[in-house]
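QUALITY CONTROL LOG
STEP: pairwise intake check
CHECKER ROLE: data steward
CRITERIA: each record must contain a sequence immediately followed by its structure tokens, with no blank fields

ENTRY 1 OF 2
RESULT FIELD BELOW
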Amino acid sequence: MNTMLIAEMSMLGEICLRLVMAVLLGGLIGWERAGTNHDAGLRTHIIVCLGSATIMVVSELAVLRFGIPSELLRMGAQIISGIGFLGAGSILIDGNRIRGITTAAGIWTTACIGIAIGAGCYIVAGVVVLLLLFAMIALRSVSSKLHLHGNQFSIKFTLEDKVAMKNVLTLLTEMNVSVKQIKTVTDDDNFIAMNLNVVLPMGKEIGEVMIALSTCEGVSSLRFA
């Protein structure tokens, strides 16, 4: 009797440890998301991780108490497929931008971490959390630089006069397009060849900018590279 009681107490302690670990590790991921002003932040990630861990704990108890070996894998598989609906809810389309993909991926991975914790794989869960935080925090600046580089373009113009140059620069300012470099050359016919290196703001497409520039008075030709 004492042996059974000790075993049950040990199992209860293990379950509590798994659930607490789910709260702590899920909270770490949620803390990073909340720090970058995302809707799915601290509480969402804690709840996702805790819920996933709970399902796995219940699955293991079902196997131990009722001898249903398939239950352990079946319930975990349902978490993986079902969590996609929650992740999809965090993806927003804002004009030409799609926001929330990283958060949705983080929610899905947080569910996987909860499964690992619920199964008692603490080391695996801890390593995944560290790698996930590395991808979200340490690589954020690298991702921003890559995105910035992807929004850089070189636009070449043929202008009739300096008034046209002023019109072009004024329009770019109104569209929040940053001009990083200007090069101009005047030919024998007094046409101005101008080369601009520009950075587009978030959500702005180069086609939209080119259409607007083509309407500027005094612009004879333009193309981008």
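ENTRY 2 OF 2
RESULT FIELD BELOW
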Amino acid sequence: MDIVAIASWVLGPFLAIMTLFFIFRIVLTWYPQVNLMQFPFNIVAIPTEPFLAPVRKIVPPLGGVDISPIIWVGIFSLLREVLLGQQGLLVMMARQNIG
């Protein structure tokens, strides 16, 4: 197994799980009374908060709604498509190594 295949195997699930976590964070913003440090919410809050905190400093809430998780869903989706999509960089590199 070469480095491109290993990167694809690692990055694919990581980007998918993080996108899913950010979608859960979007849903959790609808319930401000939820304590994010309590189980099971901390499973989603702990890995996503390091990404969200800096964005919150730059992008203020719109109408009282935190839009930073939406920004990160877009970023992770874009990264997944650029790297692992049908014409993604890692996919094209893997094809080049095979052929």
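INTAKE CHECK: passed for both entries
DESCRIPTIVE NOTE, ENTRY 2: The chain has one domain: 3-98.
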